[in-house]
Design brief:
Oligomer: single chain
Structural class: alpha/beta
Number of strands: 5
Number of helices: 7
CATH architecture: 2-Layer Sandwich
Strand order of the largest sheet: 3-2-1-4-5
CATH topology: Nucleotidyltransferase, domain 5
Distance between the termini: 12 Å
Largest sheet: 5 strands, mixed
Order of helices and strands: EEEHHHEHEHHH
CATH superfamily: Ribonuclease H-like superfamily/Ribonuclease H
Radius of gyration: 15 Å
């Protein structure tokens, strides 16, 4: 089964109040195997809330001279095609993605799978279902090379979880 596992980082918590995606990371997968990846920071010209910056560490200075949203989301749309999308806490990520796509006149009709929801169903005994907890409990190695709350590394962790879900049926 082909799919795209992705993660985003944002300027805040709600696209309804103007917040935007400032980083996107995605992995194209064939079953549990990573085939290719997509990653970009995005200069959306919108202030990053202090709370969001504390979580992901992305500053306005880091976004200077990065690609603009229309370039990134057009390329991302081409990358995902009509493949199923997978994210940890997918409602949050897809709400932002739909808002970004809508600004460009695109729609998002891909099937969506949520590893957070699936982990709750498959492993109800876990103390919590945060991405790093599920990743570690399934045998993923959390170490200093992983930048938590950065889109590509979180997408890699979610891809590992997705792969384990696929293997276990």
């Amino acid at each position: 089964m082909k799919s795209i596992v992705f993660d985003i980082e944002t300027t805040g918590l709600s696209p309804n109040t103007g917040h935007r995606i400032i980083e996107i990371g995605a992995l194209s997968m064939q079953g549990a195997e990573i085939v290719s990846e997509f990653h970009s920071l995005i200069d959306c010209d919108y202030p990053i809330s202090p709370q969001a910056q504390r979580v992901h560490g992305i500053s306005a200075q880091m976004l200077r001279d990065q690609p603009l949203p229309d370039m990134v989301f057009t390329a991302f749309r081409d990358f995902i095609g009509h493949l199923p999308l997978v994210a940890h806490n997918a409602p949050f990520d897809t709400r932002f993605l739909r808002a970004e796509f809508a600004q460009l006149g695109y729609s998002l009709k891909n099937t969506i799978h949520c590893t957070l929801k699936l982990s709750r169903r498959h492993w109800p005994h876990l103390p919590n279902h945060r991405l790093d907890t599920v990743f570690a409990r399934l045998g993923g190695r959390v170490d200093a090379t992983i930048q938590r709350h950065r889109a590509l590394d979180d997408a890699r962790m979610a891809a590992f979880v997705w792969g384990e879900i696929l293997k276990r049926g």
